Amino acid sequence: MLSPWLSRLLIAAILATAFVSPGAEAFGADDPEYVKICDPILGKCKYILKSEIKKAAEEKTTPGKPAAKKAKPVCEFGGAAQACTDAELGNWSNRQQCYLQRLTPQPPESDPVWAGHTDGSIWACAREQGYDEGRHLVTRWVWLPGEPDTVVTDPVTLAYRAVAAMQLAPPPIKTAPGAGQIGLVKMPVWLWVTRSENTWGPIVRSASVPGLTVTATAQVKAINWSMGDGKTVRCDGPGTAYAKSFGIKESPDCGHRYRKTSREQPNCKYNVAATADWEITWQSTLGDTGQISMTQQAATQLRIGEAVPVLVDPSGDQVSVPPAKDGC
Amino acid sequence: MIRRPLLGAAALCAALTLAACNGSPEAGRPDPTPSAPTTTPTPSTPSTPALTDEELKAIEAAKATYVAARAAVEKALKDPRKSSREPLEKAGNGGGWLLTAIDQIRFEREQGWYLSGTVKTTAISVISVNLGLEQPEVKLANCIDSSAAKTLYQATGKPVPLKGGDGDRRKFESRVVLAPPAKGGAKMWFLIEDKVTGKC
To answer: Tell me, what's the ipTM?
Structure first.
């Protein structure tokens, strides 16, 4: 049996326990287990156990298996790989070490951030930093005279820019017999390409953004000649230009012999297409490398006839030639 | 055009509801016959000058932008995983405030939190209007009431154990400016600053 005093104490203790909700245990603002987090949208600050805050920063910087060819990340923050684009913050600048996006609206020209400049733009330079209270943006405004040095492109895109600067052209194809001449079945046809830097290579061009340059080298690997008779001739070199002094002999490296005349072809000619296979290799100043394949095509037409017996009257100049069957 | 401080109006409107402020015959214009004593910002201008139609329109537009911009941020906080920058900008969030909002949205996304319930803007009053600036500007005072809102975990729907705090009704002072978007296009009103100044 409890004494009345002890009973009252017990009841008070039970009541006190009942009025403390499970989530309202006492804490002090200077409790090292808690961290103060402020919500600028709602305008209030509260406390939360540090253990409740995800340390996403640690997760993000966990090194993964490095790509075999990647010596250095394209976008980096203090040497650590950084996504080059952030949908909310803009594009990463290796020079500024932050994501840049043009501030909207632009501050008035009287704003000190312009520092007297009347050209260029003000950019929001933001990156995330992690603290006890979680990751938050660290933002500053920067004036830049033109477009920033953001790595908006990956090296592959820069490689394509370098290739575009090469102005690769279709192969200037030549044949013997030529386009205005008539060849003969079973006689050699010579095929070749006039070489130049941008039709055969090698050709080297570079494309850059601040902090990153990609150098590409292009060279034709082979030319595939589609002869129009169902046959394709692959020539690993440009071929040999024909000269009359060669007489009637086969091209040493790139040629063809038609088995049939072009009589049945549209316009009485074979449609000949030459496709140059470009092999393009590139490498970036940050160690990335890669290959690009590209083709360029050119076309011509070849008329192929056949040798027919010609009857010559030995007593005169009359020549008897069989009439063409189909107007070719 | 001179800057027109309207702190007397702000004090009056802050005591009223948003509807009362907007519903007056000339919304945003200070009551010419205040029933309660008000303070004037400068002794040399004891009476608030009458607002022009242009200023009244600017105030209405700025208020509408404030409400729309805030609503877009609140919507984003209700599902941070699906939020993006574009609707925030379109709704008139800009300048440093846009980055502040994005920061908070990203933080809650990263933490796996979201906002549930309703955040009320219970009073919008005018502090000043200045259409003579390079970027016409309206300063507003507002009360943000988040007493009916909670922060919950996305994964469980349970409340985030936030403790203590300084109250759910917070007074904000905001700057709304008229300027073209950085991408170009017609001028629009932007909420570029919204800072808490205390309780309301």
So the answer is: 0.78
